[in-house]
Write a structure and sequence with these properties.
2 domains, mainly alpha, 81 residues, two-stranded antiparallel ribbon, 48% helix
């Protein structure tokens, strides 16, 4: 069994990108976590780090550890403003 269903995730991801582009245009920055959480060795999402700390809560939201993991994405956006 897999925790990740790539078909439904990709459809939702593409639809969300279309909506953001349509509604916000150039005013919004689309943040994509795929690069941050995709494990190329396993060819799947990595939901936890090498020590077993989860990046997500039970509700599928980023945990405090997950937020620290994606902090560089937000730092890059903020530094370009």
């Amino acid at each position: 069994k897999s925790l990740y269903n790539p078909t439904s995730f990709e459809r939702g991801r593409r639809r969300h990108a279309e909506l953001v582009k349509k509604e916000c245009g150039s005013k919004c920055e689309l943040i994509d976590y795929v690069d941050a959480f995709w494990n190329k060795t396993m060819n799947a999402f990595q939901y936890f780090d090498n020590q077993g700390f989860s990046y997500f809560t039970l509700g599928g939201h980023l945990s405090a550890h997950g937020l620290e993991h994606v902090r560089p994405i937000y730092e890059k956006i903020c530094s370009s403003l």
